[in-house]
Amino acid sequence: MQTSDEQKPVIRARALRARNLMAVAHAVQHIFAMSIPPLLVFIHADLHLSWTQLGTVVAVGHITGGLMQFMTGMFVDKFGVKRVLISGFSLLLTGLFLFSRSHTLPAMIACQILFGIGNSTFHPASFAEVSRATKHRGMGIGMALHNIGGNVGGAAAYSIAALLAVWLGWRDAILAMVSGGALLTLAFGLTYREMAAWEKETDQSGKAEDEAAVTRQKPAESTDTQKGNENASPLLQIWMPVLVVATAALMSGAFSRGFNTFLPSFLTTARGASGAVAGMLSTIMMLSGAGGSFLGGKLGDTLDRRRVVLASALVTAMFIMLLVQLPLQGLPLVLLLIAIGFSLSVARPCMSALTSDATPGDKTGTAFGIVFGVMSLGGSAATPIIGYVADHYTLQLGFVLLAVFFLGHGLLMQLVKPRD
To answer: In CATH, which superfamily holds the domain spanning 11-200+235-415?
Structure first.
């Protein structure tokens, strides 16, 4: 059904509301997703678990989340965004609550599995909804605002969790966060109106275009067999652009998780910062990503998104090499970290928009589930690899390897061919 002129303002208002609510939810999700790492020092002192054991606990949650995102992406397309998000938040908060009551390593690992399953639902659902809300209406800036929510939430998590743990102890700190999260989940369920339900009735143009693109992707079954692509799988052809993005996301995820995990250690061991100062510098670096995401969204709506990703990768790799090679201290070090956080975040909204561009038909949940699932697995693999390099060589060499990962992701994104 074609959208009438009277309906268009209503549609735009609902799309704006959906996009903004997803950005706020993204910030909240990142607060919970990053809540355990700042508490590890308190758990270590309380339960006397080794750092290897605690690192394993964190890795289990991320591995579970990465594997489950493939499935939760399909659930989004089948059951809708709202049901998946509320179910995911409920599982995530349940996992955190049980974690706060745990006293043994096996119990903590079991809780992290539940936490990872719940956490796996957010990115496929939220990015699919932002894609629908901003389709043909400035997707670059829409993805940028969504990423900014994640930047702010992830940066805030370190301070919120640590301060609560100092005041209440790590167990009650988690309880306080879970209580707040339960209230926010209830408010979300009462106020959020899923966009897809009314979009199907009022604005079919974007979906029709995507379906036409998928139809054009299918090989002919009659006289075209001599053209060289008769042996290619139609399903593989249709999903190939998404798989290319996912391969690039594997390298991007390896860089992001490896860099964010080991940056405080690098600042402490190689630049002489205290643990508290290293944490504050890491927060500053993450917060600067908000500005980078906004610029990336603006550029993604006016320039070739693939070129924006490549420029971000080249500049970020150069900054990482400067960080490794130059013995910076004080203000120059702070400025370089701000530049790194800014430049690496420029690529993120463009990658998300390219994922939507490459999605066949209306399978946005499945596409984002594939991309973010692979990204999470890449991040989970990177931390032991960089740890091994640091143990047997130097952490500086590990950072050089991470720079190569991010540059490789920028080069791979040049192979993405968005659908017409």
So the answer is: MFS general substrate transporter like domains (1.20.1250.20)
